[in-house]
Every structure is written in C-alpha cells, then in structure tokens.
Amino acid sequence: MVVARSGLKKWEKVREFALALPGAAEEFPWGETVAKVNKKVFVFLGADDGSFPLGITVKLRDESAHAHALTCPGAEPAGYGLGKAGWVSIPLEQKGAPAAELLCDWVEESYRTIAPKRLTAELDAS
What is d(CA 10, CA 30) in angstroms, rounded to the nearest whole number? Predict the structure, then answer.
C-alpha cells in the first residue's frame, strides 16, 4: 500500500517537526498522539497503529491557510465543535494529500496560535 507508506512518512515528519518546536511535549490522551505547548494541544496527530486513517488536526487562524487546508482531499472542519474555532482535520493517506513541508507550515501556524509569546519569540530567534 504505497499511499499508506507515504502517509506514514509524512506523519513521522510532522510529528518530529512538532516536537522540535520550543516547549513542545508529546502526550497520549484518548489513545491518540498529540503535541502540546504550555499544556494546550496545538496538533492532534491521531493514532499511528492503523486503527484509524492517518491524519492531523491543526488550528488555522489565517483565513487563506484555513481555506487552503479545507481544499485538501478529505479535509474537513474538526469534530466536537472544534471546527468552529478554526481547527481542520487533514487526512494524510489520500491521493493528493499535502506535502510534509506544507503540513509543517500549518503545524507551525497552529503552534503560534496556542503557544505563549515567549516561546514564539524563541522560535523566531532560532
């Protein structure tokens, strides 16, 4: 399954990128992988055990990034009412799924939305 393998590679790159951001920590609530900063989730990474299709959920306040993310195959506003706050779920295994670099840009935007100013300043300095 070529698509799944490329989806897993993207997932791994995005996870590695997210955890390298200042103050980021990985946690596993609800059996799912999340990256948090200051005890708040900035990216939902789902489960990588094959129980669900691979995907990420990020908070995008920038209107053009939000609109672009929603044009990805299978992307949709996040469930549980999170979509109303700008959260978007983006599948990684579908044909035409965004490249890892773009996903990392969106993860960074989500991080900047959630992280305290001192940590975004640290990110800007690096």
Answer: 22
